[in-house]
Design goal:
Elements lengths: L2 H16 L3 H12 L9 H13 L4 E5 L5 H7 L7 E6 L2 H14 L5 E5 L2 H10 L7 E4 L6 H10 L6 E4 L16 H15 L3 E10 L2 E10 L2
Helix pairs in contact: 2-5, 3-4, 6-7, 7-8
This protein binds S-adenosyl-L-homocysteine, 3,4-dihydroxybenzoic acid and magnesium ion.
Length: about 220
């Protein structure tokens, strides 16, 4: 079993079940054309986020890390009439590409893009009384993951689902003495989450066209 098999299986189910449409493909192409790294969630993962948001009836979604807005579009499409997704992005270039993608995808009226470092924006959202969110997707920088988890809890209610991308990194998280700040960020996030009585959590390891990684899924229970 190898990367080629994982990618082929993604292709197989992609054609059958996932139905990534031309708008989503265009969003990826526009992101690549603007020089953004192709690190958006895969179609299978995007559809997973979409189904999760639908399943819990999410009306209010928060996303950390927009890039070109590919995952945002999948999530926005799960929203009912009047639903909203706030997405946080540090890079003005990424935000511009994403904004154009939102317009093309017809979801611009559902998306509120906040430019700036998430650690600056999150306290602003709290001060503005935004939230509690029904679903929070953490997919920005890894070193800040413990802080993102903390803020996510503050912006949650009982029943909020928090999902975090890239928590496995090809098994890199096993290296306790890693000098990689990303690895240490994910490890501290897992430790903090393990001590937090208000969440119940799991991790699903994933393989596919993006390689070997994983999603953490946390339910706020109190
Ligand atoms: N969720 C996107 C991928 C996000 S990639 C998708 O799946 O389509 C991670 C993004 O987080 C990048 O665009 C990066 O610029 C942004 N980012 C990095 N550090 C950040 C920070 N401190 N605050 C907000 N966004 C940040
Ligand atoms: C990277 C970031 C991501 O959010 C991702 O899903 C894959 C890779 C990265 O920074 O390398
Ligand atoms: Mg990611």
């Amino acid at each position: 079993m190898n990367q080629e098999t994982w990618a082929s299986v993604d292709e197989y189910f992609g054609d059958l079940l996932i139905q990534e449409d031309a708008t989503l493909r265009t969003a990826v192409e526009a992101s690549a054309a603007a020089g953004l790294r192709p690190i958006q969630v895969s179609p299978a993962q995007g559809k997973f986020l979409n189904l999760l948001a639908c399943a819990i009836g999410a009306r209010n979604i928060l996303e950390l890390g927009t890039l070109g807005g590919y995952s945002t579009i999948w999530l926005a499409r799960a929203l009912p009439e009047g639903g909203r997704i706030i997405t946080l992005e540090l890079s003005p270039t990424h935000a511009e590409v994403a904004s154009r993608n939102f317009v093309r995808a017809g979801v611009a009226d559902k998306v509120e893009l906040r430019l700036g470092g998430a650690l600056d924006t999150l306290p602003q959202l709290a001060a503005e009384g935004r939230g509690p969110f029904d679903l929070i997707f953490i997919d920005a920088d890894r070193p800040n993951m413990p802080a993102y988890f903390d803020w996510s809890l503050r912006l949650s209610r009982r029943g909020t689902v928090i999902i975090a991308d890239n928590v496995v990194r090809r098994g890199g998280i096993l290296d306790a003495s890693s000098d990689d700040a990303d690895i240490q960020g994910v490890r501290r996030f897992a430790e903090v989450a393990s001590r937090e009585k208000r969440v119940s959590a799991t991790v699903l390891q994933t393989v596919g066209k993006k390689g070997y990684d994983g999603f953490a899924l946390l339910l706020v229970t109190d």
